[in-house]
Amino acid sequence: MADRYLTFTGTAPGRFLTRRLGLPQPAPLKRWSPQRPALEGGRLLLTAGKSELDLAGAGLDLAASAEQPAAVLLDASGVRDVETLAEVHAALHPVVRSVGESGRIVVLGAPLDPADHHQAAVQQALEGFTRSLGKEIGRGRTVNLVRLTDARAAGSTLRFLLSPKSAYVSGQVIEVGPCDETAPPADPERPLAGRTALVTGAARGIGEAVAETLARDGARVVVLDVPQAEQDARRVADRLGGTALGLDITAPDAGERIAAALPDGLDVLVHNAGITRDRRLVNMPAERWSSVLDVNLASVLRTTDALLTSGRLRRGGRIVATASIAGLAGNAGQTNYGASKAGIVGLVRSLAPRALAEHGVTVNAVAPGFIETKMTAAIPLFIREAGRRMNSLAQGGLPADVAETTAWLAHPGSGAVNGQVVRVCGQSLLGA
Ligand SMILES: NC(=O)c1ccc[n+]([C@@H]2O[C@H](COP(=O)([O-])OP(=O)(O)OC[C@H]3O[C@@H](n4cnc5c(N)ncnc54)[C@H](O)[C@@H]3O)[C@@H](O)[C@H]2O)c1
């Protein structure tokens, strides 16, 4: 459904009226397209404190000066005390204004040091700084914090955050572990070439966009959806040169059937299928509870276990599950859905270290906010409008925004990103 308000605020009378009334001022976001693979303008590197990061190794094309930067990378990983924290202000204060529309600010921080509470305090301060700047900066610009120890491990993450692909990701704190040994992909335009990706619930909506984006990145895609939606799944698969699999993921043997359909194995598993059956708890029959928990959580646990233990998910593999901001903040009428999506967060945090150590597979989640799909088009007008505007970018996201985030997590160079829950919500006001 078109966002008419966004179109209206883009006109001169619309801008005048909405400013006078103090209404939100969404800016059209500059998203990735083949015609616009990168943001126009330089990438400025600033430093606060004494950094030990070797950013040259990340291949990011950074400059020490840029007049109207499209992106600013502030390396604050060496900030260890409150005095040096002032350098964050000193570095960004003069340049924030000049960052272009849909520009990016990425702050680099260090993991919190449990043996140094001064370092931990100021590194945590960067989180509050990042989230506050994200809320005030406007004009479609985003601000994110990456905690890291080795810049080489963060190349895919920084390229994503500094690009138009992360248009709807703001106010996030992402931790990147130590360097993973994966060699860079032979063709950076098709990083998933030679890999197989299975996306559940991919006949439409966000899942369809995920399949499309992974195929763009070179993956052979398997489009899974319920047998009733098999025709749509086949249409998507044909368009992307992939295959369709009609399967209800709540079937007790779904994992085995996926394994049987993929005798050569699988590299990327995207748990996207999900349903809502909203009711307040007082009015919620047991069936509404169990169907949501079964599709959104139990089947994710079952198929993940089956594909990991059977070894069908190859080393270097990626699991990306779908949470929701309702699972982080809670939502009235969604005790079942909120429980199922919070369960995904628990699954990711617990399984990620073990899956990497034992199977060489990373496990992360995307947590979408308000995304323009059939699901959200069905929400009554006023609630829908509130959902769309209650975020720092004052608009809904698109399925492509979730898809690009998934593609970054699925990237062969993202092996050091593990156990993360990344919100794709335009920095929604709901939840932390
Ligand atoms: N749209 C949003 O704003 C939003 C926000 C937060 C989270 N999410 C999550 O993103 C995911 C995709 O959402 P969407 O808006 O594209 O939904 P959608 O309803 O448009 O698509 C979901 C797809 O999953 C399939 N599916 C449902 N049950 C299945 C089953 N048992 N087996 C196989 N396939 C099944 C459906 O047939 C459908 O094609 C869901 O997990 C949803 O909870 C969406």
TrEMBL record:
Broad class of enzyme this protein falls into: oxidoreductase
Give the UniProt keywords, A-Z.
Oxidoreductase
Look up the EC number in the record and give it. Answer: 1.1.1.100
- Residue intervals of the Ketoreductase domain: 195-369
What InterPro entries does the entry give? KR_dom (IPR057326), NAD(P)-bd_dom_sf (IPR036291), Sc_DH/Rdtase_CS (IPR020904), SDR_fam (IPR002347)
Query: What superkingdom heads the lineage?
Result: Bacteria
Claim: Oxidoreductase is one of the keywords in the record = yes
Signal peptide feature range: none
What SUPFAM superfamilies does its record include?
NAD(P)-binding Rossmann-fold domains (SSF51735)
Gene Ontology MF terms in the entry: 3-oxoacyl-[acyl-carrier-protein] reductase (NADPH) activity
PANTHER family reported for this sequence = 3-OXOACYL-[ACYL-CARRIER-PROTEIN] REDUCTASE [NADH], SHORT-CHAIN DEHYDROGENASES/REDUCTASES FAMILY MEMBER
Protein family (similarity comment): Belongs to the short-chain dehydrogenases/reductases (SDR) family.
Name the record gives this protein: 3-ketoacyl-ACP reductase
